[in-house]
């Protein structure tokens, strides 16, 4: 673990409650894959940042640290990627070790740093670069799977990052403590805490205590004492004061073996002690324990979230990582109220609006002062397009109501995005404007398919065993095991899936629906409603589904062959019939797809599957698609705690995993508050993941073929303990 391990002392256990996303169209988004925080170490493959997008609510500004897990930590990726996650949602490595032909995926480590720490020598938000690319890095935080990205694994938010490098005659250890500043995980109100989710704390609460334990060894017979230096390479913020007064020394009789020294002020915010010492073959081994605590309240500090960087060096300090960060201030753009509109004059619709950039000019108290500042001939205001179209018409607007002094780019194309740099501006006796970066990510509208509903469903029947056998075979289970389960099977006459046209930010070619906050979404939905008649005339309407372009692939699970799919209001009885349904949603972007399953099944016990892929006609922004796999039949769970009561027996029948052991192992309450638990007790960890995913999959008391396949895969990984 890069020479150290870390723990949040009172907050290691987070419980099973899911995080409630502030974006209301998304709903719950992050689901714990375990009830304790996890450590992930690996090679940093690439680094990027979230946003900014033109918003009113700039809370999310994540570092996205894409790491290829190594060794012991591969489970953070593999346990989900090989069973639960949609393959297309996984993040490919950009620099795979072993060559470009190697199948390589990364886990996304995310945290929104305080603006005062967003740019540093290791991670640079303004440049979207990191000096750690290609090198090892470790993280610690909640291990989750994210609904918005196909249930792919993440460590989010990761509050602790660290790594170790070799140094002449020793090593150097770096630790970054970064409390998430997005305000999405701070209090119990940010989580859906229901009965059965177990005890736990908010993922990013204030006042947390953290501990870094650094492994060391030093010889007993050395002529001179070793020196371990502790420094803070950047100023900290939001870290509570400690009562430490002395640096510890490791002594053997009257000889000093190891001295810890530090720069002035470090002991004010950390405490340091030797722990768990032992000797082996003339060497002293142990841990140097360093503890720190984040402040309880942000009211009295200059930063919105606490942060701390520690540099520990044993021996001669190596050359530091190169500092390539320009520290150009990146200012969050926002939309001028009421300026959003759809431009339908071209071949495809464009989204336009007036983008405003707040200017840090506290001395300008009038419009006249603002104008004089901008046209000062000694330092004129210059706007340069670094990416995207050249700057459009712009103007300076003075502060009004709750809006600051701002530069407004008029009628900007929001579907393309832009990157601008602003330089200059000034007047006699006033410092010029610092170099500013102005980044607007493209906005696209993408399809998003929500949970499906069934109608005219019948439970059981004389052919139940045969239908269960088909679902188990789809899940990869040996056919001879099907008779062992006593679960019910449900057959639907119709399945309806909600489809909506969802606004999203696009970064690195990937649509990010969760990156847009509610206020911007409301503006976008109002714009869609205002433009609906003209949009419908050219591209089809959202309300009746005519704006959608569909691809369908039907399968007969009994024969293994293709099933006929008929697109329309009616079709032959042996076909799967699909049709759009008008007026099924509450938003102007919503419609539904209704799937009528064959009334004449061949053979009579056949189970059908349909893969439906949705695209938009005349999309706003880059083309996007979404898909869903629907089933005519599903396993039906009974009332009450059916997951605990019925699933262990099913998984034992399907995979041979001992049901009694599983019931004991997957309990979510009373998990040991031990940082090594997730590593040392892999079977129990996988059992808890199995229980957490089962709770998500069985939220409608049904298990379809896809969900059953994931559960069987998880059970097999657990059985391999």
Strand fraction: 35-45%
- How many domains, as an integer? 4
Name the overall outline.
flat
Main beta sheet strand tally, sense and closure: 6 strands, mixed
Estimate the mean pLDDT confidence. Answer: 80
Radius of gyration, rounded? 29 Å
Can you tell me the residue ranges where pLDDT is under 50 for at least 5 consecutive residues?
427-431
Alpha carbon gap, first and last residue: 22 Å
Oligomer: single chain
Q: Label the structural class.
A: mainly beta
**How much helix, percentage-wise, in residues?**
10-25%
Helix count from the secondary structure assignment: 9
Number of strands: 43
Tell me what you see in this structure:
With about 725 residues, this protein is mainly beta. It folds into four domains: about 5-315, no CATH class; about 330-440, no CATH class; about 445-455 and about 490-635, no CATH class; about 640-720, no CATH class. It is built from nine helices and 43 strands. Strands 30, 33, 34, 37, 38 and 39 form a six-stranded mixed β-sheet that branches. Helix 5 (about 640-655) crosses helix 6 and helix 8 (about 680-695) packs antiparallel against helix 9. It is flat, with a radius of gyration of 29 Å. Mean pLDDT is about 80; it is low at about 425-430.
Indicate the topology.
Elements lengths: L3 E5 L9 E3 L7 E22 L13 E7 L5 H7 L9 E2 L12 E7 L11 E2 L4 E2 L5 E11 L5 E4 L4 E8 L2 E9 L12 E2 L16 E11 L6 E6 L17 E4 L2 E8 L8 E10 L2 E11 L13 E8 L14 E2 L2 E3 L5 E3 L6 E9 L8 H8 L7 E6 L6 E4 L8 E8 L4 E7 L8 E8 L2 E13 L2 E2 L4 H11 L13 E4 L2 E14 L2 E3 L5 H22 L8 E9 L5 E2 L1 E3 L8 E6 L8 E7 L11 E9 L8 E7 L1 E4 L5 H14 L3 H7 L11 H4 L1 H16 L4 E2 L1 H15 L2
Parallel strand pairs: 6-10, 15-17, 21-29, 37-38
Antiparallel strand pairs: 1-14, 2-3, 2-13, 3-4, 3-9, 4-6, 5-6, 7-8, 9-10, 9-11, 11-12, 12-20, 14-19, 15-20, 16-17, 18-19, 22-24, 23-24, 24-27, 25-28, 26-27, 28-29, 30-33, 31-32, 32-42, 33-34, 33-39, 35-36, 35-40, 38-39, 40-41, 42-43
Helix pairs in contact: 5-6, 8-9
């Amino acid at each position: 673990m890069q020479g150290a391990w870390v723990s949040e002392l009172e907050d290691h256990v987070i419980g099973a409650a899911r995080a409630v996303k502030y974006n209301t169209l998304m709903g719950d988004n992050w689901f714990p894959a375990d009830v304790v925080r996890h450590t992930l170490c690996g090679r940093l493959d690439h680094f990027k940042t979230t946003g900014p997008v033109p918003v009113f609510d700039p809370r999310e500004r994540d570092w996205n640290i894409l790491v290829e897990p190594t060794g012991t930590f591969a489970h953070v990726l593999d346990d989900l990627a090989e069973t639960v996650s949609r393959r297309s949602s996984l993040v490919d490595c950009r620099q795979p070790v072993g060559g470009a032909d190697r199948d390589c995926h990364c886990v996304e480590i995310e945290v929104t740093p305080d603006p005062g720490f967003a740019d540093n020598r290791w991670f640079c938000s303004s440049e979207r670069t990191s000096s750690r690319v290609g090198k090892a890095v470790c993280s610690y935080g909640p291990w989750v799977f994210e609904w918005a990205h196909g249930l792919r694994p993440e460590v989010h938010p990761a509050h602790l990052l660290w790594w170790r490098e070799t140094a002449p005659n020793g090593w150097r250890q770096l630790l970054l403590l970064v409390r998430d500043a997005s305000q999405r995980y701070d209090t119990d109100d940010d989580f859906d805490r229901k009965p059965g989710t177990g005890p736990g704390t908010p993922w990013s609460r204030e006042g947390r205590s953290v501990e870094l334990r650094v492994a060391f060894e030093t010889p007993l017979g050395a002529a001179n004492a070793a020196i371990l230096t502790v420094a803070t390479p950047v100023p900290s913020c939001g870290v509570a004061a400690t009562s430490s007064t002395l640096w510890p020394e490791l002594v053997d009789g009257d000889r000093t073996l190891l001295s810890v020294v530090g720069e002035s002020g470090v002991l004010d915010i950390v405490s340091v002690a030797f722990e768990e010492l032992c000797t082996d073959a003339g060497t002293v081994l142990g841990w140097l324990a360093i503890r720190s605590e984040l402040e309880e309240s942000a009211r009295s500090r200059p930063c919105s979230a606490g942060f701390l960087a520690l540099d520990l060096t044993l021996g001669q300090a190596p050359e530091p990582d190169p500092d390539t960060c320009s520290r150009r201030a990146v200012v969050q753009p926002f939309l001028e109220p009421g300026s959003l509109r759809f431009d339908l004059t071209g071949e495809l619709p464009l989204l336009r609006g007036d983008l405003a950039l707040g200017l840090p000019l506290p001395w300008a108290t009038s419009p006249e002062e603002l104008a004089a500042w901008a046209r000062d001939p000694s330092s004129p205001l210059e706007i340069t397009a670094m990416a995207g179209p050249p700057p459009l018409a712009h103007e300076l607007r003075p502060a009004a109501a709750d809006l600051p002094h701002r530069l407004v780019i008029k009628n900007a194309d929001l579907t393309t995005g832009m990157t601008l740099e602003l330089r200059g501006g000034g007047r006699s006796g006033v410092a010029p404007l610092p170099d500013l970066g102005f980044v607007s990510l493209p906005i696209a509208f993408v399809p998003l398919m929500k949970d499906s509903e069934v109608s005219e469903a019948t439970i059981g029947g004389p052919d139940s065993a045969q239908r269960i056998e088909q679902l188990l075979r789809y899940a990869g289970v040996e056919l001879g095991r099907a008779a062992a389960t006593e679960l019910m099977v449900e057959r639907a006459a119709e399945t309806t899936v909600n489809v909506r046209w969802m606004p999203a930010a696009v970064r690195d070619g990937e649509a990010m629906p969760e990156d847009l906050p509610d206020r911007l979404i409301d503006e976008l939905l109002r714009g869609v409603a205002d433009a609906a008649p003209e949009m419908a005339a050219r591209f089809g309407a959202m309300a009746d589904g005519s704006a959608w372009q569909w691809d369908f692939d039907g399968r007969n699970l009994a024969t293994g062959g293709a099933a006929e799919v008929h697109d329309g209001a009616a079709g032959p009885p042996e076909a799967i019939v699909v049709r759009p349904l008008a007026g099924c949603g509450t938003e102007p972007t919503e419609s539904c797809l209704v799937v009528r399953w064959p009334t004449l099944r061949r053979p009579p016990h056949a189970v059908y599957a349909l893969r439906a892929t949705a695209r938009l006609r005349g999309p706003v922004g880059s083309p996007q698609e979404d898909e869903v796999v629907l089933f005519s039949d599903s396993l039906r769970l009974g009332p009450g705690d059916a997951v605990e009561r019925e699933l262990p027996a099913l998984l034992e029948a399907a995979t041979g995993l001992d049901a009694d052991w599983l019931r004991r192992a997957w309990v979510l309450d009373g998990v040991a508050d031990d940082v090594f638990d997730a590593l040392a007790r892999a079977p129990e960890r996988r059992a808890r993941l199995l229980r957490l995913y089962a709770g998500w999959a069985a939220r409608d008391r049904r298990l379809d073929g896809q969900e059953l396949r994931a559960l069987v895969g998880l059970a097999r990984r657990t059985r391999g303990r």
